[in-house]
């Protein structure tokens, strides 16, 4: 994925149309499509997931399918999405470092089935996709402050989050079908 930095500078193609604005709009549509694809891949993984594969560990990581899905849900629903929503409503917010080791598993409900975690993620992807489709230019460019790396636009956070999701989906696909990775 090619990252496009937003600027106020634009080129025209001679006909007066703004190429930069069109390119940026296309890029943002590709981000939205990326989130739609993640939701579809999660659904596909859920359909192929058997009970014995739910507990498979990826060698060298200590992570199984359940822990991977749980981590994704914790990051998405407990960290990332609330932060983006707060930026979009105009709060001055600062995002700290997500402490995966401290957090991992704390959002798991006792007796919760893996399919419930997966269902939460599918709903989250659908909600995020809808939210992104409704965002204005101003929304995409709103900023929030990350305590380690400074101010970034909502677009930047979405790019980082999508890359994170894709990495975990590759891991999950690897659990189910190592030959496909």
Task: Provide mean pLDDT, rounded.
Answer: 79
Number of DSSP strand runs: 3
Strand content: 5-15%
Count of DSSP H/I helices? 7
Shape: globular
Spatial strand arrangement across the major sheet: 1-2-3
Helix fraction, binned, reads 55-70%
Low-confidence sequence ranges = 1-16
N- to C-terminal separation? 18 Å
Explain what you see:
- This protein is mostly helical and 181 residues long.
- The protein has seven helices and three strands.
- Strand 2 (143-146) and strand 3 form a beta hairpin.
- Helix 1 (19-48) runs parallel beside helix 7 (154-176) and helix 3 runs parallel beside helix 5.
- The model is unreliable at 1-16 (pLDDT under 50).
Features:
single chain, 181 residues, mainly alpha, 3-stranded mixed β-sheet, 7 helices, 3 strands, 61% helix
Write the layout of secondary structure elements.
Blueprint: H1 19-48, H2 51-54, H3 65-88, E1 94-95, H4 100-103, H5 114-134, H6 137-141, E2 143-146, E3 150-153, H7 154-176
Helix pairs in contact: 1-5, 1-7, 3-5, 3-7
